[in-house]
Amino acid sequence: MTDIRILLVDDEPDVREVVDVSLGLDPQFKTRACASGADALITAAEWSPSIILLDVMMPLMDGPTTLANLRKNPRTAHIPVVFLTARMRADEIEQYTSLGAQGVLSKPFDPMTLAASVRSYLPPLPVHHAP
Amino acid sequence: MSLKAIKAILLIEDNLADVRLLREMFNDHGEHGTTLMHVDCVSAAEKHLAEHAIDIILLDPGLPDAQGLGSIRRIHAAAPRLPLVVLTSLDDESLAERTLQEGAQDYLVKGQIEVRGILRALRYATERKRLERLKDEFVSTVSHELRTPLTSISGSLGLLMGNAAGNLPRPMERLLAIAYNNCQRLVRLVSDILDIEKMEAGRIGFNFSRVAVRSLVAQAIEANRGFAEGYGVRVQFDEAGIAADVRADPDRLLQVITNLLSNAIKFSPAADEVSVAVEKGINTVRLTVRDHGPGIPVDFKPLIFEKFAQADAGDARQKGGTGLGLSIVKQIVDRLGGEVGFADADGGGTIFYVQLPCWDHVASLALDHDAKPGVPRILLCEDDLDTALVLREQLRQAGFTTDFAYSVGDALTRAVVTQYQAILVDIHLPDGDGVSLIVRLRALPQYHDTSIIVISADPSRGRDDLRSSRLNVIDWLKKPVDLNRLLPLLAKSIAHEASGRPRILHVDEDDSVACALGAIGDVVTVNSIAAAKNALKTSDFDLAVLDVALAKGASPDLLPELRDSKGNVIPVVVFSAKGARFASDIQVQTALANSHTSIDSLVATVRDRLASRRTSPVREVL
User: Fold this and answer.
1) CB–CB of B559/B572 below 8 Å?
2) Which chain A positions have a beta carbon within 8 Å of B155's beta carbon?
3) Which residues in chain B are contacts of A111 at CB distance < 8 A?
4) Of B9, B45, B137, B493, which has the fewest beta carbons less than 10 angstroms from its beta carbon?
5) Mean per-residue pLDDT over chain B, rounded
6) Nearest CA in chain A to B199
7) What's residue B159's pLDDT?
8) Which residues is B246 bridged to in the sheet?
9) How far apart are CA B228 and CA A11, in angstroms?
10) Cβ–Cβ of B164/A21 closer than 8 Å?
11) Contact with chain B for residue A59, Cβ under 8 A
12) For residue B461, is pLDDT > 70?
């Protein structure tokens, strides 16, 4: 079974760890975590994750700016992005989706079902050809 | 902060003598650089606030288009972040109190206050509003900041409780459960605080639609099942009672029912019963939730809907409440246009009730019952009842009759039953967007050319819709509607419809004739006698063209109605597809076969008839 790569971007180390363990409950998930938007741009381009979980409030480069930059780079433009955020006002959610996010997951989250929620945002599995 | 910081004051006042007085006062005593702008009604104020930078609002709530608390609510909704001072001739303490609760910073009575007092009140109101805003921002920031550590705590505890780190020894599991449950309570508390803050700042949009209260109650009971079992309480509800539909936002109403239910469960003795009932009144639906708990202490009754109010603080905290549930209920029910209250129940316990406008009542408002014959009839597709009622009143003064449609489905049904001379469409409707409504209206032959105007909070959004360019929408207006722009548009489009080209009622099942007739007049094609009768009720025609296949069967009952609103007989041309002879009550002259030639000669005959239509009413058969 092929790995599903998940890139997590959050400036809070504790949140990163809890999300990492929660996603680890799905044996197919392989998670990498970045502490900043700038870091995320590089890792996303190099590692080609299947999906990116993005925090909104981060110092220097916030989530929406990171998303805009991901969309500018042809190597990362197609990667689905889901915001993981405590800011869940209706107008904020509307803003995230208008920026091109695939979805929004709220903080605090239920750690036992987080992996399943992330799975629901994954694009249909690509068809693999033998090399 | 001094008055120097107040650069622009918006005065909303319809008494011109008072306006003059205040102007003079500001010129004499006001600081330089402060401008006093003036409008004389709420809708003009809404428009002004959307377009200009204002520092403070001075409002006399008795206005032509809204009165009392209604006008205060609308102005507060239009500018929730601006300080608002009410200046009125009504010296009414209870109104003053309600005014401040609705978001105003001060309540001044005309004649009781002199110039310097008003100026000082404006300064203090500005400062009060600034502090209130700081408090709101603080609450919002703190709540969000709390969520970050809560995410890590509840996440870690949730993983441990879910045995994600292996099975737990019994004593440890018990302690972790306590930590986990209290963490969840803190999470709820934070979202309740944010909900309250959002609602007070007017930042929650309500989406109204027709809601079946019984199925919503069933949902709330289902959602609270585990909670009730935890307290050993049964919830009794007769789901199969008579249907009771209200007009409300289903998500918000569910929140109301859930809060009332969890409250009742919490305060019930173990093994007892909470009963929920839904009753239908004349104009309202009443929902009651009854518990058999200890009842509400007398001292506490006036405070029950206050934030963080808990009858017996220790007891309620033990029960896991946030102290915000009923306050949220009150705020939502107010916004839904309903009423919430409570009473001691016979035999102990408490009954909470919520009363909401019943759907049938709201639906009956949809038809303008003041309609006068000959007055142009407009369909307003808008889901906000208050907005619709205000616009109806304004349009009535301008000489129009206005019916409402609250949804896309509603609009399509209504448009078929009645022929409207113009249609106003709000882009945001509960069951679909306004653009797709217009697409469907344009597909109806009788609305192919009718004037349609879009009204929207953000007109650019719909205008950019790719389909829009083909829809022939006359204009896209921003909310609140500028009457100075809307009224001339309506007058023009209706005048065009009324004069100019002759109006032809075409009763046929075949569209090709309608196309040919379109060259000489505005054609309304209907495909049945019933639809023809409806069209005749709402619109004047200069001539009717009937397909004989339809005319034959129905002529005795259609023909007497072929009169315009002034009672003049409308000339009729009966057109035959087969060249047959007709029923004796129609004066038979000619019959032609349905071919290109015959359509050409039909058009020629119609043209002749129209030219002589004022001289003698003629029924003619081709």
Assistant:
1) yes
2) 15, 18-19, 22, 108-109, 111
3) 154-156, 158-159, 162, 164
4) B137
5) 81
6) A89
7) 94
8) B211, B358
9) 40
10) yes
11) no
12) no
Q: How far apart are the C-alpha atoms of A32 and B437, rounded to whole Å?
A: 47
* Sequence ranges of chain B with CATH classification 3.30.565.10: 209-359
Over the stretch B19-48, which tens digit does the pLDDT of each residue have? 988 888 878 776 667 888 999 988 889 888
Looking at domain B209-359, which of 3.30.457.10, 3.30.565.10, 3.40.50.2300, 3.40.50.300 is its CATH number? 3.30.565.10
Is A107 within 8 Å of B156 when comparing Cβ atoms? Answer: no
What's the pLDDT tens digit per position in B531-586? 777 777 767 777 788 777 765 555 555 666 677 666 667 777 777 655 433 333 34
**Residue of chain B nearest A58, judged by CA positions:** B148
Q: Band the pLDDT of B6: cuts 50, 70, 90.
A: confident
* Domain at B503-621, CATH from 3.40.50.970, 3.40.5.10, 3.30.750.24, 3.40.50.2300: 3.40.50.2300
Residue B563 is given by DSSP the state B
Q: How far is A22 from chain B (nearest CA, A)?
A: 7
* Contact at CB, B147 and A108, closer than 8 angstroms: yes
Residue B155 has its nearest CB partner, among A57, A86, A109, at A109
In chain B, which among 6-65 make CB contacts under 8 A with chain A?
none
Residue of B nearest to A12 (CA): B148
* pLDDT of amino acid B595: 46
**Residue intervals in chain B for CATH 3.40.50.2300:** 1-202, 366-498, 503-621
Over residues B104-117, the pLDDT tens digits come to 999 999 888 887 78
- Nearest CB partner across the interface for A111, out of B158, B203, B204: B158
Measure in Å the smallest separation between the Cα of A6 and chain B Cα atoms. Answer: 18
Alpha helices in B162-266 (DSSP H): 170-200, 213-223, 225-231, 250-266
SS3 B276: strand
Q: Is the pLDDT of residue A112 over 90?
A: yes
For residue A80, is the peptide bond before it cis, meaning its omega torsion is within 30 degrees of 0?
no
Instruction: Judge whether A25 is closer than 8 Å to chain B, CB to CB.
Output: yes
Sheet bearing B422-426, strands edge to edge: B401-405, B377-381, B422-426, B451-456, B475-478
Instruction: Count Cβ–Cβ pairs < 8 Å, chain A vs chain B.
Output: 58
pLDDT digits (tens, 9 = 90+) for A66-111: 999 999 999 999 999 999 998 776 667 778 888 889 989 989 999 9
- Asked if residue A52 belongs to a domain, the reply is yes
Nearest chain B residue to A114, by CA:
B155
In tens, the pLDDT along B324-333 reads: 889 889 988 9
- Selection from B265, B271, B290 nearest residue B279 by Cα: B290
- Residues B328 and B335: their CA atoms lie apart, in Å, by 11
Residue A15 covered by a domain: yes
Q: Is A111 on the interface with B (CB under 8 A)?
A: yes
- Give the whole-angstrom CA distance, residue A21 versus residue B95: 57
Query: Which amino acid appears at position B485 of this protein?
Result: R
B366-498 in CATH: which number? 3.40.50.2300
Q: Which residue has the tokens 């094609």?
A: B525
Contacts of B208 (CB under 8 A, 6+ apart): B247, B248, B249, B383, B384, B385, B406, B430
Contact B503, B521 (CB under 8 A): yes
Asked if A112 and B203 come within 8 Å (Cβ–Cβ), the reply is no
Question: In what side-by-side order are the strands of the sheet with B503-507?
Answer: B522-526, B503-507, B543-547, B572-575, B619-621
CA–CA gap between residue B324 and residue B309 (Å, rounded): 7
- Residue A32 falls inside a structural domain: yes
B155 and A111: CB-CB below 8 Å?
A: yes
Query: Nearest CB to B152: which of A14, A87, A91?
Result: A14
Please answer yes or no on whether B164 and A86 come within 8 Å at the CB atom: no
